Amino acid sequence: MKWAEVVAFALANGMRLKRKEDSRLMRLIAFLVWPVNPSFMGGYYTTIRGTFYIPASDWGRNGAIDEDTLRHEAQHARDSRRWPVLFELSYVFGNLGIVVGPGMRAFWEWRGYRLNVEAMAKRGQSVEEAIDYVVPQFIYQWYGWAGGLPCWPFRGYWERKVRRTYQRAALPSPPGPI
Ligand SMILES: [Zn+2]
Predict the structure, then answer these.
(1) CB–CB of 77/51 below 8 Å?
(2) pLDDT tens-digit readout, 61-101
(3) Same domain, yes or no, for 116 and 145?
(4) How far is the CA of 48 from the centre of ligand 1 (A)?
């Protein structure tokens, strides 16, 4: 997407955009998770409390962020506004691999990736493509965070979820009245 479209989408969805390197909160998290994820600052998009933090390398750049990513992050923005304490705890602790971590993080991430699967189905990409893209995010590691600790490492579970979501989204819309 063009940068102007990213900005317009964020505005329409009540999502703030911020350069990740300019945020004290992001610098703090980067410091905390550094031992398990040294590329937190430059290598990942992060959305907390309605703000989408974008690494400097992508900031302001046309074509850096695609629509699927933006919709995924907008879902995180809505969730973190609706359940601020739960969302933030599961992110911060989850990213350190502590207590509520893996399961909770998977729960929020699925709410985002569901939208990616729906978009892929509507574009006519295959269900296998959707599975190949989404399932590894959950079973191998959560984006490399927590040093490869799996998010929720049950392949069959995620495959079924992706298939079900894909099939529902791929259904033709019911015919309207004449
Ligand atoms: Zn996400």
Answers:
(1) yes
(2) 999 999 999 999 999 999 988 888 888 777 766 555 554 55
(3) yes
(4) 10
- With tokens 């298939």, the residue in question is 163
pLDDT of residue 8: 97
Alpha carbons within 13 A on the beta-carbon side of 135: 18
Q: How far is the CA of 156 from the centre of ligand 1 (A)?
A: 20
CA 171 to ligand 1 centroid distance, Å:
25
CB 169 within 8 A of CB 121: yes
What is the Å distance from ligand 1's center to 176 Cα? 35
Distance from residue 177's CA to the centre of ligand 1 (Å) = 38
For the chain, what is the domain count? 2
Q: With beta carbons less than 8 A apart as the criterion, state whether 36 and 96 touch.
A: yes
What residues make up the domain containing 61? 1-82
Pairing of strands 46-48, 51-54: antiparallel
Kindly state whether residues 119 and 165 are assigned to the same domain: yes
